[in-house]
């Protein structure tokens, strides 16, 4: 018998609204800085901007400031 764990599964890709919420940023910041090298990487699927959760996590790690 298998247990349904869909509530604990995280999607591999999310839209800009979800990405902004995930990162604690605004959607306008993501949209305005999308092509900036300092912004998180994105991909286009079916002409729509999507963010890989794995890439967002890596981007956050890269933003860490070490003194």
Defining key terms:
3 helices, globular, 67 residues, 36% helix, three-stranded antiparallel β-sheet, alpha+beta
Fraction in helix: 25-40%
Number of helices: 3
**Which sequence of SSEs, written as H and E, runs from N to C?**
EHHEEH
Biggest sheet statistics? 3 strands, antiparallel
- Total strand count, please? 3
Strand order of the largest sheet: 1-3-2
Average of per-residue pLDDT values: 91
What is the radius of gyration computed over CA atoms, rounded to a whole number of angstroms? 14 Å
| Total of domains | 1
Alpha-carbon distance between the two ends: 51 Å
> What form results from the Cα inertia axes?
globular
User: Helices and strands: which structural class?
Assistant: alpha+beta
Kindly estimate the percentage of residues that lie in beta strands according to DSSP.
5-15%
**Runs with pLDDT <50, length 5+?**
none
Overview of the molecule:
This protein has one domain. It is 36% helix and 15% strand. The protein is built from three helices and three strands; from the N terminus they run E-H-H-E-E-H. The chain is globular. The termini are far apart. The protein has helices at 16-23, 27-32, 53-62, and strands at residues 13-14, 43-45, 48-52. A hairpin with a 2-residue loop joins strand 2 and strand 3. InterPro entries: DNA-bd_dom_put_sf (IPR009061), HTH_17 (IPR041657). Pfam families: HTH_17. This is Helix-turn-helix domain-containing protein.
């Amino acid at each position: 018998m298998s247990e349904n764990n869909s509530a604990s599964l995280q999607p591999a890709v999310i839209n800009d609204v979800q990405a902004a919420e995930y990162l604690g940023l605004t959607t306008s910041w993501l949209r305005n800085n999308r092509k900036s090298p300092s912004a998180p990487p994105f991909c286009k699927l079916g002409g729509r901007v999507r963010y890989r959760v794995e890439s967002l996590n890596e981007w956050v790690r890269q933003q860490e400031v070490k003194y």
